[in-house]
Amino acid sequence: MRYADVAKAERIRIYDVARVAGVSVATASKALNDTGRMTEATRTRVKQTAAALGFRPNAMARALTKHRSFTVGLLTNDTYGRFTLPVMAGVSEALVDQGVSVFLCGIEDDAALGKVHVDAMLDKQVDGIIATGKRIDRRLPVDLSGLPMPVVYAFTEGPEDAITLVSDDAQGAREAVEWLVQAGRKNIVHVTGPETFVSVGERARAFRAVVGEAGRVLHGPWSEAWGHEAVGRLWSEAGDKPDAVFCGNDQIARGVVDALRERGIVVPDQVSVVGFDNWEIVSAATRPPLTSVDMNLKELGREAGRLILELAEGKPVEPGVRQLPCKLVVRQSCGGVRRSSDQQGGVLEEV
Amino acid sequence: MRYADVAKAERIRIYDVARVAGVSVATASKALNDTGRMTEATRTRVKQTAAALGFRPNAMARALTKHRSFTVGLLTNDTYGRFTLPVMAGVSEALVDQGVSVFLCGIEDDAALGKVHVDAMLDKQVDGIIATGKRIDRRLPVDLSGLPMPVVYAFTEGPEDAITLVSDDAQGAREAVEWLVQAGRKNIVHVTGPETFVSVGERARAFRAVVGEAGRVLHGPWSEAWGHEAVGRLWSEAGDKPDAVFCGNDQIARGVVDALRERGIVVPDQVSVVGFDNWEIVSAATRPPLTSVDMNLKELGREAGRLILELAEGKPVEPGVRQLPCKLVVRQSCGGVRRSSDQQGGVLEEV
DNA sequence: GTGAAAGCGCTAACAG
DNA sequence: CTGTTAGCGCTTTCAC
């Protein structure tokens, strides 16, 4: 006997519930969906027999009539998962208790694969699509406009009039730099990624807005090696050395911390270092652990889930770009007192 | 007008195709599904009009009659994503061209959440479930037995008679250690994770099988700090120092490499180091980049996808544990020549 | 070869 | 307040 047959044979339908409860199928349906009007007694009786029988409505049948599949598609080009994972977790979290399931659609940067996935979502009649990526200033290689279902863009660029969710890079950067200033640092430099990234520009601008337009910004790749090299460059120059480095991501920050240690410079006593992304695996393994800006990607995902649900239910949502706040997670690399309570000390479990 | 209404209004049904092609709905259905018998001419004509009209069959309706949703659930407790991500990517890859979509079900280690997701999958009538986790010797906090659909376990422990896919830790370890031996190393030690992990035991056994039963194995946490500490311990002892360290994961290996460098010991000239997991972010950032054992998790995911498909189609699959081979990815940390061709030099893109 | 008709399991008008 | 009836869009016997 095939699985499908077993399933068919054993599964109880609303018909069974109705029969046992002594009502018609229609009444049973209304009772279970809290619609229509009937005595509380009938409703309760139906619900109880349904529960007793272990009735689970067939989502396909329901979808067919309601034109709603209780399913959304999550489109992403971030195989690496660094940014997408928390977003996915948030989306899933926001939707699961509403009975909405999430289709995972990884498209790499392949337009053809993107089309395959979009077509599949069309066929499966998803109630909405959440597009997410690894860069706030890049679009996915698929056209999601004119689709017969709502779309929300999270951590990826969307069309002009779309609903887009991004992290507030400027605010995150500002908090980090202000924290350093409050800690008494006078000579702060910013070592960050390539200028071509919009977020790099935003963070740098926020940095300069706090320390003054003369604030020094060094651009390079997003790597530990670059953090290392930047320290080499800064500390080989004549004149005052920086007493704080605000980094564009945690990898650069780690490179900076390691390079400083190799030079015998003590972090955070002599130099404070702050990272960006709060990527646990990097920030926690650094010695000392990195203070870092967390982009709250999970919350961003949750918000995306909430929005797509509202849209699916036909509620109006104002289009435009929403910036969600970042938060500074304080560890030991910048001195000062811990401010944030959610230090995820996190033992990393592993095989 | 709501999205659902737009969708309903604009969507063309098989009825439209049939009308335009001048056949009955039944014939159209058969033509499009390559079933039934009819003239080639009719079949082609129907297919062409379907294509011209941009007909996309309604997956819900099809599922309702076929008792097959062309959907599988991917259950995971690995929020962190380290091991799950490649598995997910593989699963998705194997299924997408078969028109099968993947439901993402992240359950943390929460049994209640697990039940919610399993119930949702039951409702949505997934054709199968792939369970995956972060440890090969731990079960997910959900009972997947007796479900009316097939289940495949990938990188997580399943019941005795289940279909389970795991990496061949022993073979991976053996290849790594043999590589070190071939490179002329005589005094190899193994610095690895806690003894409580089954895979730790397997790798250690394989290690001893190659270097002899006297081979030294040090257990500790899965952290860089432990790698660091292990070097401190080994190099402060009297007697011969190791000329190679085989590590239980890349983080430990990185700790080892860093500690050696701090002692002025050159890797790989004086000491070779090999990691495990081939976690790009760690192995590539290490100086020098780590040679590491790759568990081929993506291939494992692909295989899981293939198997669940076969099961869903009613084909028989032999139960039992399948071990998939690991492969050694050679970088610079152990000397010798590059052997593997797929060095993913990988620039890590980031915001 | 082709089509009419009967569902798949559920919801929603519309009567009673 | 409850039940009858008519679909949702597609597949599948079974006649013609």
TrEMBL record, chains A, B:
<dbReference type="InterPro" id="IPR028082">
    <property type="entry name" value="Peripla_BP_I"/>
</dbReference>
<dbReference type="InterPro" id="IPR010982">
    <property type="entry name" value="Lambda_DNA-bd_dom_sf"/>
</dbReference>
<dbReference type="GO" id="GO:0000976">
    <property type="term" value="F:transcription cis-regulatory region binding"/>
</dbReference>
<dbReference type="InterPro" id="IPR000843">
    <property type="entry name" value="HTH_LacI"/>
</dbReference>
<dbReference type="Pfam" id="PF00356">
    <property type="entry name" value="LacI"/>
</dbReference>
<keyword id="KW-0805">Transcription regulation</keyword>
<dbReference type="InterPro" id="IPR046335">
    <property type="entry name" value="LacI/GalR-like_sensor"/>
</dbReference>
<protein>
    <submittedName>
        <fullName>LacI family DNA-binding transcriptional regulator</fullName>
    </submittedName>
</protein>
<dbReference type="GO" id="GO:0003700">
    <property type="term" value="F:DNA-binding transcription factor activity"/>
</dbReference>
<keyword id="KW-0238">DNA-binding</keyword>
<dbReference type="Pfam" id="PF13377">
    <property type="entry name" value="Peripla_BP_3"/>
</dbReference>
<feature type="domain" description="HTH lacI-type">
    <location>
        <begin position="12"/>
        <end position="66"/>
    </location>
</feature>
<keyword id="KW-0804">Transcription</keyword>
